[in-house]
Specification:
By secondary structure, the chain is mostly helical. The protein has 15 helices and no strands.
Length: about 290
């Protein structure tokens, strides 16, 4: 019973900051005016959802950019911790492995403000890279502020910042693999690559599926703070995503109802993706997030 008392503060925080704010979704169906509040703002039905039904240009641009970044991150960012964990697990020396892990974990604890500033100092027009190229009479390379390279820049920043931290779960799963399986595979003549394919990867399959399902639930969130900090250099056409659309039209533009409607739809899409992916996982014999 005493353990339940310890859980009460966490439950209160969860209730106040995650469930009570859900009541604010009523704004999506109102002509919301901040100075009169939710209780007195007139209801507008589905008028705020016209940007979804009628294809508002700014919304469609944000949607396309979001889907592109989501696809890029699933293809390149999601597998990165898995590959890094496999590489770390292959290290023989435990001392070297721990040292490398500690170094790789550090970027995760940096805020996006610091990460963006570091990349600007390295890759900006007057950054270390261009200063080096100028010193050797080589033309400069415009990376920061280049709209064509913006999505690649975002992806590289995410990989650098979070890949090391993402290996924790995979390394924990790999530590539970019985060494007898590797020895048996080696006795059967399996190479290191075959051992990885037939022993290591099957041990990670359940965890990979679980994390992929959870990632799909957050698929339309592709880095609000990271993108907002760099929008000014590339323009909205190339950088506007769903989260920044909600921010720019809600807090900045005062179009609260439309922003709430877009945010609500984004959340519903995430729920549908999680439920659908979890059902597919059950069809392949995996537990997924929950059992049916």
């Amino acid at each position: 019973m005493a353990l339940f008392w310890f859980a009460i503060p966490g439950l209160i925080v969860l209730l106040l900051f995650h469930y009570v704010p859900l009541l604010g979704n009523a704004i999506a169906f109102q002509d919301y005016q901040p100075y009169i509040g939710i209780m007195h703002s007139p209801w507008s039905g589905l008028d705020n959802f016209d940007v979804l039904f009628n294809g508002d240009d700014q919304f469609l641009r944000a949607l396309v950019n979001t889907l592109q970044l989501t696809l890029i991150q699933v293809v390149f960012v999601f597998p990165a911790p898995i590959l890094l964990a496999l590489a770390l697990n292959s290290l023989v020396s435990e001392r070297i492995k721990k040292w490398v892990q500690n170094v790789l974990y550090l970027p995760h604890f940096l805020s996006w403000v610091v990460v963006v500033a570091l990349f600007q100092q390295m890759l900006g027009n007057t950054g270390m890279l261009n200063l080096f190229l100028q010193a050797h009479d080589v033309g400069t390379w415009n990376i920061i502020g280049n709209p064509e390279l913006f999505k690649s820049l975002l992806t590289s920043q995410v990989i650098w910042k979070d890949t090391g931290w993402g290996t924790i779960l995979f390394l924990a799963a790999l530590s539970r693999v019985d060494n007898d399986l590797y020895e048996a595979a080696a006795m059967d003549g399996a190479s290191r690559l075959r051992q990885t394919w037939h022993v290591t990867l099957p041990a990670l399959r359940g965890l990979v599926i679980l994390l992929l399902i959870l990632r799909l639930g957050d698929a339309l969130s592709v880095g609000f703070e990271q993108i907002l900090l760099q929008q000014g250099g590339v323009g909205l056409e190339n950088s506007e995503v769903m989260d920044t659309y909600v921010y720019n039209h809600g807090l900045i533009g005062g179009d609260w109802g439309v922003s709430a409607a877009v945010g609500l739809v984004k959340g519903l899409v995430g729920v549908v993706l999680v439920l659908g992916a979890n059902k597919v996982a059950h069809l392949f014999g995996e537990e997924g997030v929950y059992k049916s």
